[in-house]
Specification:
The complex is a heterodimer. Chain A contains 12 helices and 16 strands. Chain A is an alpha+beta fold. The longest helix of chain A is centred in the N-terminal third of the chain and has 20 residues. Chain B is flat. The chains are: A alpha+beta, B mainly alpha.
C-alpha cells in the first residue's frame, strides 16, 4: 500500500506485556459496539472498513517475534468480517483472523470491533470505531458527517504523530514504583463453557451525575466507589474482619488529556483507588470520599509521568534489552501472573461521553464500550455515555452475579431507574 | 417491559429472567415478548485441549500396553519377569501424571501421598524381583529416602495454606531449608547403609548453600525496597 509510512513498528511500552501474557484461553481484548435503527449492510461495512483501515495503518498489523522483542509488521488489506457471537471478547486466535489483531463483527442491527490491547487503548480504539461508524453511515445512510481529531477524515494521509510512542517521548528521569499489596479477589465459580456474561445497565446520565454530585464526587469516582462497596459486601459476607483484604479497583487514566500528544496508540496508565476494610466499616459516602481523595492525589500529570517513566526505564535497561525474547516471554508471563491483576479486585474503565458529531449521533441508537475479562480478575466493568444514556457493562466469566446485583440494586435503592439487558438467554447448558 | 420484583430493575425484552437474581420476569399486561436478542445464538468456542479426555485416552493406551506386555511375557518370552517392570513403570506414570488430571479437584496432599506410596511400591517390586531377600537397601535406604521426600513435600504444601507462609519468598526460603535438612538426612542414611558412623561431610555444602539462599530470601521478604528493586528489574 502506498499511503503507509512504515513497514514495521516497535511495540509501545504498555503493549509489550500483552503478547507475552496471552494464553490459549485468554487475550487482552476490549470491544466497541454501535446499534443502528436498520439492519447492518455487510457490503457497506466492508467498504467502510477498507477505507478506515487505510487511515489507521497502525491497526493493520500482525505481531512477530524478533530476537529480543516482539514487533508489529504492517499488513495490507483488512481482516475478514465475521458474524457476531453470543460470547463477546472470548480469546482471539490471531491465525484465525488472518493475523490481524482486531476483528470486525456484525449481527442484526449492530456492528462490533474487538481490539487486542497491544494495538491501542480505549481512547485510540474509540477514535477508530467512531471513524469506522462514520464511514459506514456515510455509505449506508448518505449522512454528511463532520470530521475532527477524533472522527478522522479517511481522505487525509496518516500522520506520524498519530502513531508515535508517546511513552518514549514524554518519559522523564523521575520514576515512581507502582508496587502495591494484593487485593481481595471476587469469589465465584468459574464459567466453564467459554461463556462470557455481559450484563448491561442503562441509566439516565443526568440523574447519575446529580447523585454523584450529592456525594461530592464525579461520575467515575461514584461508580468506582459503588463497585468497591458492592465487592466489599461480598467480602463482608464471606470473611471475618481479620481476614479482610483491601478492595481496590483499577481505573485506567487517559493520558491524552494530560499531555500534549496526538497518538492513537496506547497512551494510558492506571490508578488503583480502594479501601482497607480492616480499619473498620466504610459507608458508601466514606468510600466516595476515599476514592475522591485518592484520585486528587494520584491523577496528577507529574506523578503519572513518573509512574510510566519507571516502566520505560525498565524497558531501556541494557541487560533486559539484551535478554533474548525466548527468555523474556516466560519471565513476563510469570510476572504478569504474580503481579498483574492481583493488586486490584476488579477494573472499571469509563470512556466518558461518546461525543458523536450531530448527524451521526441521531443515527446511532447505542454505542457501547465493553472490557474483556482480565486474566485473573474475571469480573470487570466499563461504561460510555451517549445521548444522556449511561450504559454500564459488567463482563464476567464467573457463574454468580452477586457483585452486579449488589451494584445495580444499590442504584435502584437510590431511586435511579435501571434498565437491564444481558446475553444470558444465549447461554447453553 | 417487565420489572424484577426482587431487584427492582427494568428488563429489556426479550429477557425472560432477571440477569441479577434469576427470578422470572412477568408483566401480566405484557406477555413475554418475542423481540430479537441483541446477542446472536452462535457461540465462539476456544479450541483448548480437553486435558481429561487426553488423559483418559493415554490411560486406555497404558492398559492396552500393559495387557500386551503381560501376554508376551507369559506366552513367548518367559525367561524373566520383565513385564513386571514395564507394568510398574506405566503404573507409576499413571499415578504421578494422569491420575491428578482424571480426578475432579484433586487434593495436593492426597496426590503426594499416592505418589510416595507408588514410588515405594515400585522400589519394593525391584527388591522382590531383582534382589530377592536383600531387604536391607530397601529398608535402610530406598524407603526412608522416598518417605522423607514425600513427607517434606507434603509438609510444604500443608504449610503453604497458612497465611504466614503466603508470601512466596518466605515459602521458598523455608522450602530451601527443608531441602538442606533433607540432604543432611540423606547422607546420614548413606552412612547407615554403608555401616560407617554418621559424620556429615559433603551434605554440609548444599546444606550451607540452601540455608544462605533461604536467609537471603527471608531478608528480601522483609525488605520492601529490595523486593521492589528486584521485581522492577524482572518486570518487562
Amino acid at each position: 500500500m502506498d499511503d503507509k509510512k512504515f513497514s514495521w513498528l516497535k511495540l509501545d511500552n504498555a503493549a509489550k506485556i500483552y503478547p507475552a501474557a496471552k494464553n490459549r484461553g485468554w487475550t487482552a481484548l476490549f470491544r466497541f459496539t454501535a446499534d443502528f435503527y436498520r439492519e447492518v449492510d455487510p457490503d457497506c461495512l466492508k467498504i467502510a472498513l477498507d477505507r478506515t483501515i487505510k487511515r489507521f495503518p497502525w491497526l493493520a498489523l500482525r505481531i512477530r517475534k524478533g530476537v529480543f522483542w516482539h514487533y508489529f509488521e504492517h499488513m495490507d488489506g483488512a481482516p475478514d468480517m465475521q458474524s457476531d457471537v453470543a460470547n463477546p471478547c472470548v480469546r482471539m486466535k490471531f491465525s484465525e483472523n488472518n493475523h490481524f489483531l482486531f476483528r470486525v463483527r456484525y449481527y442484526d442491527m449492530h456492528i462490533a470491533v474487538e481490539i487486542f490491547h497491544s494495538l491501542t487503548d480505549g481512547g485510540g480504539g474509540l477514535s477508530f470505531f467512531k471513524t469506522l461508524v462514520a464511514e459506514y453511515l456515510t455509505l449506508r445512510e448518505g449522512l454528511v458527517i463532520p470530521r475532527d481529531d477524533d472522527v478522522l477524515d479517511c481522505d487525509d494521509e496518516p500522520h506520524p504523530d498519530e502513531y508515535e510512542d508517546s511513552f518514549l517521548r514524554l518519559n522523564t528521569d523521575a520514576t515512581r514504583s507502582s508496587m502495591e499489596g494484593y487485593a481481595y479477589r471476587v469469589q465465584a465459580t468459574e464459567e466453564e463453557n467459554d461463556f462470557v456474561h455481559i450484563t448491561t445497565g442503562t441509566l439516565p446520565a443526568d440523574k447519575v451525575s446529580l447523585i454523584a454530585k450529592s456525594y461530592g464526587v464525579s461520575v467515575t469516582e461514584f461508580i468506582t466507589a459503588l463497585l468497591i462497596h458492592s465487592i466489599h459486601k461480598q467480602q463482608a459476607r464471606l470473611k471475618k474482619r481479620k481476614q479482610f483484604k483491601p478492595v481496590k479497583i483499577c481505573v485506567p487514566v487517559n493520558l491524552r488529556k494530560l499531555f500534549p500528544t496526538k497518538t492513537k496508540r496506547n497512551f494510558a496508565t492506571y490508578v488503583n483507588p480502594g479501601i482497607n476494610p480492616k480499619y473498620g466499616e466504610y459507608s458508601l459516602r466514606e468510600i466516595c470520599k476515599a476514592v475522591k481523595g485518592f484520585m486528587m492525589l494520584e491523577v496528577d500529570d507529574k506523578k503519572l509521568r513518573a509512574k510510566f517513566s519507571s516502566n520505560v526505564k525498565v524497558e531501556k535497561n541494557i541487560l533486559l534489552r539484551l535478554c533474548p525474547l525466548i527468555l523474556k516471554i516466560p519471565i513476563m508471563k510469570l510476572s504478569f501472573r504474580v503481579l498483574g491483576d492481583k493488586q486490584t479486585s476488579s477494573c472499571f474503565s469509563n470512556l466518558g461521553l461518546a461525543n458523536l458529531p450531530s448527524p451521526m449521533a441521531e443515527a446511532v441508537k447505542h454505542i457501547d464500550f465493553i472490557l474483556g475479562p482480565l486474566q485473573l480478575n474475571r469480573l470487570v466493568a466499563s461504561c460510555l455515555t451517549h445521548q444522556n444514556e449511561l450504559r454500564i457493562h459488567f463482563t464476567r466469566t464467573l457463574k454468580e452475579s452477586e457483585i452486579e446485583r449488589n451494584f445495580f440494586c444499590s442504584l435502584v435503592e437510590m431511586g435511579l431507574p435501571v434498565t437491564l439487558e444481558s446475553n444470558q438467554l444465549r447461554k447453553k447448558g | 417491559m417487565a420489572y424484577c420484583v426482587n431487584c427492582g430493575v427494568k428488563m429489556t425484552p426479550p429477557e425472560k429472567v432477571c440477569p441479577l437474581c434469576g427470578l422470572e420476569a412477568y408483566n401480566p399486561r405484557e406477555p413475554l415478548s418475542d423481540a430479537k436478542s441483541r446477542y446472536p445464538e452462535q457461540m465462539e468456542r476456544t479450541s483448548v485441549v480437553n486435558r481429561r479426555f487426553v488423559a483418559s485416552i493415554i490411560s486406555l493406551l497404558l492398559i492396552v500396553t500393559t495387557g500386551i506386555c503381560l501376554l508376551l511375557n507369559l506366552l513367548l518370552v518367559k525367561d524373566s519377569p520383565w513385564s513386571v517392570f514395564v507394568i510398574g513403570s506405566l503404573a507409576l506414570f499413571f499415578v504421578a501424571a494422569l491420575l491428578p488430571i482424571l480426578m475432579h479437584k484433586p487434593h495436593p496432599l492426597f496426590c503426594l501421598t499416592l505418589d510416595t506410596a507408588a514410588i515405594s511400591l515400585f522400589l519394593l517390586m525391584i527388591v522382590v524381583f531383582i534382589t530377592p531377600g536383600n531387604w536391607r537397601w530397601y529398608l535402610i535406604l530406598a524407603l526412608p529416602i522416598t518417605i522423607a521426600a514425600g513427607g517434606f513435600a507434603s509438609l510444604m504444601v500443608f504449610l503453604s495454606r497458612f497465611s504466614y507462609f503466603r508470601p512466596i519468598l518466605r515459602l521458598v526460603a523455608y522450602s530451601l531449608m527443608l531441602i538442606g535438612i533433607y540432604l543432611l538426612g540423606l547422607e546420614m542414611l548413606l552412612h547407615a547403609y554403608i555401616g560407617t558412623p554418621w559424620a556429615p561431610f559433603w551434605s554440609w555444602i548444599p546444606f550451607a548453600a540452601c540455608v544462605m539462599t533461604a536467609l537471603f530470601f527471608l531478608f528480601l521478604n522483609r525488605s520492601r525496597k529490595w523486593q521492589e528493586e528486584i521485581t522492577k528489574k524482572i518486570f518487562i
